[in-house]
């Protein structure tokens, strides 16, 4: 049996996306959905390992693929220690940090754990590519204003890096030859200045920057502190207000930008104001990140699900078009990005990284 397939595993909070690639061709892909009642049984993300792995193996069998045909397995990497961008081979120290959630709990922590387990059975290598913990910050970007609180690099690194590579290809140059601001406009929003291939700052989609479909972004800090000490909320409830139930959800009761646009079309003035406020905050953050690059910006790229919206992208373009060319790369294709990351190291285009050698 020849080994020609790459299994790609991308665990999210409510589903595990799986795909099998042959070369650059996506042969088959599926969202394995997890009912909240199923996931409630587990108190920690790492405990979902056997449950999700079993579903993946059953799916492979249904699709007629054997693990003996795998050439490699790649998973989305999680909240590891701050690390340089790249494709990493999954090692035991990495598995340890994914299991304990060294920077926190995130469904993507399971990506490397499941990838290694299946790869070990198949006797092949496993990888992760550009996890959310990729950290290429300039030192100056780490300073927050309070010595005991650091600005941290947590961002949609996988899609942003993949888009940066694609734009460079389209422009017929190397990613290291370009300065860009890339705005990932998804359920969360990451706005990132890229200087010669490095993501040197970011808003941290969970804590700062523009509000998004379901996250609050930066809010007036004094009022937030008062809310925390009001006695009306638990820590969990406050966290949920910031990520999950903030942004469009808090104002309009939906995290679906398409629904909001429908509300606007039906004449809802509040929906219009809130949606424009989101566009306004996105544009303002892009402007701020352009200053990080001292205005030397070759392109501004809008990506993620909301980049499909002509209304939103036009609104943003009107405010930032004076800075640089605006390119739209709607949606995200993390499965392709994971597969491409493996190909870059298998072909020798890029050197594979080893986690324990790269992190402090
Ligand atoms: N055609 C469209 N027009 C407007 N908004 C859209 C369109 N398609 C998707 N969206 C919006 O994009 C958002 C989701 O984006 P995306 O799928 O990139 O997010 P996600 O993968 O759930 O989260 P994240 O990007 O934070 O990982 C939703 O608000 C969705 O309504
Ligand atoms: C922390 C940003 C990445 C994500 O929301 O998945």
UniProtKB/TrEMBL annotation:
Please give the superkingdom of this protein's source. Answer: Bacteria
Q: Which PROSITE patterns match?
A: ACETATE_KINASE_1 (PS01075)
Residue ranges of the TM segments = none
CDD domains to which the protein is assigned, alphabetical = ASKHA_NBD_BK (cd24011)
Could you tell me the EC number(s) of this protein? 2.7.2.7
Its annotated compartments are: Cytoplasm
GO terms assigned for molecular function: butyrate kinase activity
Tell me which Pfam families the record gives: Acetate_kinase
Write the record's keywords in alphabetical order, separated by commas.
ATP-binding, Cytoplasm, Kinase, Nucleotide-binding, Transferase
Q: Which reaction does it catalyse?
A: butanoate + ATP = butanoyl phosphate + ADP
Main enzyme class: transferase
Q: Which family does it belong to?
A: Belongs to the acetokinase family.
Q: What is this protein called?
A: Probable butyrate kinase
Gene symbol? Answer: buk
